[in-house]
Amino acid sequence: MSDASSPATATAPDMLELAALLCSRVCHDLISPVGAIVNGLEVLDDDPKPEDREFALDLIRKSAKTASARLQFCRLAFGAAGSSGAQIDLGDAQTMARGHIEDGKCSITWNLPRLLLPKNRVKLLLNMLVVAQHTIPRGGMLTVDPIGEGETMSFRITATGHNARLPQNISELLSGERGPAADAHAIQPYYTRLLAQSCGLTVTLAPEGEAIIVSAS
């Protein structure tokens, strides 16, 4: 990277760019399942054999379910999800998180009580889960524990899995040491930092033994 675009001189995106990058992130998450639905429909259009038709229908069913789960998660994690000052049920957040993240390779142990928390605090939790998932690219377990209680509760997520690692640059994006690159991948941890700041918290990402810990305090 040249000196002109080094982390020290990177600038935060303006509101329009932030909105555009978050939209790009949502589209990125949806391209794969929606594309699979299209592929399945094309197979059906070709008047396939019975076994091919069943394969296509199964592909469409699974991909539609995945697309729906990702849309619901993105609406809560990145969208408005209620009026300003609204509260969100942690039980709903758990349902959205499991639908989006649990895929046969990655699973969640949810140790949070069921209660209402301020909207941005729940959005922060969901975005912390996305960050934690990136640390176990081959799959594993995300364990979600509370820090404190009540409306000021924050969170600790322990990611365990084969070859758990710190993704490049994400720690700097969370801490503010590095500005976000203009792509959908970098904007998500940057947005996580903005959510933490709105809650008066700081998100950290650090190894602990063979696990990676994402915490907000």
Task: Characterise the protein shown here.
With 217 residues, this protein is of the alpha+beta class. It folds into 2 domains: 64 residues, Signal transduction histidine kinase, dimerisation/phosphotransfer (DHp) domain (Helix Hairpins, Orthogonal Bundle), CATH 1.10.287.130; 133 residues, Heat Shock Protein 90, CATH 3.30.565.10. 50% of the residues lie in helices and 18% in strands. A 5-stranded mixed beta sheet has the order 2-4-5-7-6. A two-stranded antiparallel sheet has the order 1-3. β6 and β7 form a beta hairpin. The longest helix has 31 residues. The chain starts with 14 loop residues before the first helix and ends with a strand. The N terminus is likely disordered.
Quote the distance from N terminus to C terminus: 32 Å
Q: Label the structural class.
A: alpha+beta
Largest sheet: 5 strands, mixed
Could you name the CATH homologous superfamily of the largest domain? Histidine kinase-like ATPase, C-terminal domain
Average pLDDT, rounded to a whole number, is 86
| CATH architectural group of the largest domain | 2-Layer Sandwich
Q: What is the domain total for the residues?
A: 2
- Percent of residues in helices comes to 40-55%
| SSE order | HHEHEEHEEHHEE
How large is the count of helical segments?
6
Got a strand count? 7
List low-pLDDT spans.
Answer: 1-9
Shape: globular
Strand composition percent:
15-25%
At the fold tier of CATH, the topology name of the largest domain is: Heat Shock Protein 90
Q: C-alpha Rg, in Å? A: 19 Å
In the CATH scheme, the class of the largest domain would be Alpha Beta
